[in-house]
Design goal:
Shape: globular
Strand order of the largest sheet: 1-2-8-4-6-9
Largest sheet: 6 strands, antiparallel
Structural class: alpha+beta
Helix content: 25-40%
Number of helices: 9
Length: about 270
């Protein structure tokens, strides 16, 4: 498996977290099942070869380019053919600067990019497919995003969300919703509307995903942490509270997850 990442240039780095690509093969006749869990990010995925199959989900991944919104739970991908994938991961508020859609309309959904950007998609997909290197694909993606960014007029509200997210990230999701509202100079209801519109989930849903990602990051950095220590570090009331969130977001208990899956946080790395 070949996995590559790149950091976006300024000003795209204000809204785009990273670019990443994966090239992988599976043994003939074999099938790999990959569990996808909420990571707090919206992502634009380009499948440049075979498409994985989604197991028991309303998500459809048959188009070449797909914008995926915030997740409320987990789903599984079945990969049985060589996979070539290039992805743009946005900061939680970032996709709103490039696409004319309320982010909550993508909640727990994946939709074809051609429904949002009708004219440029075919050429973009063709250029990405023909590019010979990861660096070349990054350059193509940056030109596309810069063109989309110039069309945006949402800077004020997006900057307000960025200010809230800075607090969320500093405290690893361990922040009260009322504190966030006060920081944003909004009422609680106004904050909830802004989160739905620009981040794509309610503050409660988003903070739960961030806390979950924080446990993955802590476990990745400190493999010997006990579940009790992990729950305490990441702001859960107790271990049973963390277990409940894990079952909802990953379909597994923490013990099952860490025995079957390598802890890795897309959000905090």
């Amino acid at each position: 498996m070949n996995y590559q990442t790149a950091t976006p240039s300024y000003p795209l780095s204000l809204f785009v977290k990273q670019y990443w690509a994966i090239e992988s093969c599976v043994a003939g006749g074999a099938e790999h099942i990959q569990r996808i869990v909420p990571n707090g990010l919206m992502e634009l995925m380009f499948y440049l070869g075979a498409h994985p199959s989604v197991i028991d989900s309303s998500r459809h991944l048959q188009d070449t380019s797909i914008l995926s919104g915030q997740q409320n739970g987990f789903y599984d991908l079945a990969i049985s053919e060589p996979l070539s994938m290039f992805t743009i991961s946005f900061h939680p508020h970032g996709a709103s600067m490039f696409f004319d859609i309320r982010a909550n309309e993508l909640f727990d959904q994946s939709i074809p990019l051609k429904l949002l950007v009708k004219d440029a998609v075919a050429e973009l997909e063709c250029r990405l497919y023909e590019a010979c290197t990861f660096e070349g694909r990054v350059g193509i993606a940056e030109r596309f995003l810069l063109n989309q960014l110039r069309k945006s007029s949402k800077e004020y509200e997006v900057n307000r969300m960025a200010h809230c997210l800075a607090l969320v990230n500093r405290q690893r999701g361990m922040v009260a919703i009322d504190e966030l509202a006060s920081e944003a100079c909004l009422s609680r209801k106004q904050l909830e509307r802004s989160f739905l519109s620009y981040i794509g989930a309610s503050p409660k849903q988003f903070l739960r995903a961030v806390r979950f990602q924080s446990t993955l990051f802590e476990k990745q950095q400190h493999a010997d942490l006990s579940l009790t220590e992990l729950a305490y570090r990441c702001g859960y009331y107790d271990q049973s509270h963390m277990i409940s969130d894990y079952k909802k977001l990953s379909g597994k208990t923490p013990s099952q997850y860490f025995s079957e899956c390598e802890p890795y946080s897309d959000y905090f790395l």
